[in-house]
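Severity: low
Component: inverse-folding endpoint
Summary: output formatting inconsistent between runs
Steps to reproduce: submit the following C-alpha cells with default settings.
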C-alpha cells in the first residue's frame, strides 16, 4: 500500500488527470513518473473517466472502455479503423536491418528520440539530417557509442521541413534498405498546448516498445503492404483536408498518371509524416527527382507548401507502386468511436484488410 501511495503521489506531482484525459502526454512521460506501472495507471484513468461520463449506464461504460482498450466497434461519424499494436500473439522477427531516416531540427529532443530508438529489436542504421554544423556535431556526440548501426549525418538547408531531407537528401539510401522509418523532431510550437502531445503520440505508436515494432515489421512482412502509420491524432482530425495544397498536388499526381478530383478522392494521409515503410512504396515520389530548390523557402507556413503537398500524396505513391497501407493504434491513445482491430494470428492480419484498407485512388469496378 505505501508503494501505491508513493506512485500515486508521483503521478499527481508530474501531471494532472485532465492532461491524461486529453492524451496531452505520451506514455513516455507517464513512465518517467511511475515506471513500469504506467500502463496500469492509464487503464485506471480510463476506467475512472468511463465512470464519470456514464455513472448510471453500465452498457455505455462498457462501450467506452472497449473503444479505449481494443475490440471491434462500429465506427461513429468521423471514426477511423486501425490495427491494435502490439499484436496479441508472438510473431517472429524476419527483418535483419532497417534504415532510420531522422530529421533533427530541434537538437534538444535527441535524447527523447534515442530512448525510443533503443526499442528497435533489429540492427538499424541512422541517417540524420540537420541544418547546421554545430547541430551535427552535437548529434554526433549524443549518438556516439549508443547504437551498433552506422550513423550518417548530413547538413541540409532549412527548407522543405522534414520532407525535403527525406526525399532529396537521403534519396540514395532507399535502394539499400527494404524497410525504413521516417521520423522528425516535431514541435508544432505555433499550435500551442493543443498539439503538445503529438510527438509523444507518434513515438509511442511507432516505437513504443520492441513488441510494437515487431508487430509493425510483421505487417511489413506481407510484400503487399508498403506503409504503416498511426491513426490520425485526435486534435488534427478536423483539419484533415486538401487545404490550400490542390494546386501543388495536381501536377504531382499527374506525374503518377492520376487526376485529383477534390469531390471524389478520399483525403487520407499520414499526417505529421512519420511512418514505417517499404522503400518501393515511396519510389514514385523519389522518381520525381525533386531538389531543395523545388521546395518553398521557410517562412513559418502552416499549409500550402510543397512539403504539405508531398505529405498528402504519400499514400497515392504507395498505391501507384501497387502496394497497400495499414493504420495502427495503441488502445489507450485511440479516439473513442474508432474501430480497433486486434490481431491474434497471422491469419487475422489478412482478415483485417477489408476493415483498414480503403484505397485513396478511386477503384474501377472489377479492379
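Observed output (run 2 of 3):
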Amino acid at each position: 500500500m505505501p508503494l501505491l501511495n508513493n506512485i500515486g503521489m508521483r503521478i499527481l506531482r508530474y501531471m494532472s488527470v485532465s492532461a491524461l484525459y486529453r492524451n496531452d502526454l505520451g506514455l513516455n512521460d507517464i513512465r518517467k513518473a511511475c515506471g513500469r506501472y504506467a500502463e496500469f495507471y492509464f487503464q485506471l484513468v480510463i476506467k475512472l473517466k468511463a465512470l464519470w461520463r456514464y455513472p448510471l449506464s453500465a452498457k455505455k461504460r462498457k462501450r467506452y472502455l472497449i473503444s479505449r482498450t481494443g475490440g471491434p466497434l462500429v465506427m461513429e461519424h468521423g471514426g477511423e479503423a486501425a490495427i491494435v499494436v502490439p499484436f496479441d500473439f508472438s510473431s517472429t522477427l524476419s527483418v535483419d536491418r532497417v534504415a532510420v531516416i531522422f530529421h533533427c531540427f530541434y537538437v534538444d529532443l535527441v535524447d527523447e528520440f534515442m530512448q525510443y530508438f533503443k526499442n528497435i529489436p533489429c540492427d538499424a542504421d541512422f541517417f540524420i539530417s540537420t541544418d547546421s554544423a554545430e547541430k551535427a556535431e552535437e548529434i554526433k556526440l549524443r549518438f556516439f557509442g549508443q547504437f551498433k548501426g552506422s550513423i550518417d549525418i548530413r547538413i541540409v538547408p532549412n527548407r522543405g521541413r522534414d520532407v525535403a531531407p527525406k526525399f532529396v537528401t537521403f534519396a540514395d539510401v532507399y535502394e539499400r534498405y527494404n524497410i525504413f522509418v521516417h521520423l522528425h523532431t516535431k514541435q508544432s510550437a505555433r499550435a500551442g498546448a493543443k498539439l503538445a502531445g503529438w510527438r509523444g503520440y507518434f513515438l509511442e505508436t511507432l516505437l513504443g516498445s520492441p513488441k510494437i515494432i515487431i508487430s509493425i515489421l510483421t505487417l511489413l512482412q506481407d510484400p503487399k503492404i508498403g506503409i504503416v502509420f498511426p491513426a490520425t491524432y485526435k486534435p488534427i482530425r478536423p483539419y484533415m483536408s486538401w487545404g490550400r495544397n490542390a494546386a501543388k498536388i495536381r501536377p504531382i499526381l499527374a506525374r503518377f498518371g492520376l487526376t485529383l478530383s477534390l469531390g471524389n478522392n478520399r483525403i487520407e494521409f499520414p499526417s505529421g509524416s512519420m511512418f514505417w515503410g517499404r522503400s518501393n512504396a515511396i519510389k514514385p515520389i523519389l522518381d520525381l527527382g525533386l531538389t531543395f530548390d523545388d521546395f518553398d523557402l521557410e517562412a513559418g507556413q502552416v499549409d500550402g507548401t510543397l512539403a504539405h503537398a508531398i505529405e498528402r500524396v504519400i499514400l497515392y505513391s504507395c498505391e501507384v507502386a501497387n502496394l497497400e497501407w495499414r493504420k495502427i493504434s495503441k488502445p489507450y491513445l485511440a479516439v473513442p468511436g474508432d474501430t480497433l482491430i486486434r490481431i491474434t494470428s497471422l491469419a487475422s492480419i489478412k482478415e483485417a484488410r477489408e476493415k483498414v484498407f480503403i484505397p485513396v485512388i478511386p477503384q474501377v469496378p472489377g479492379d
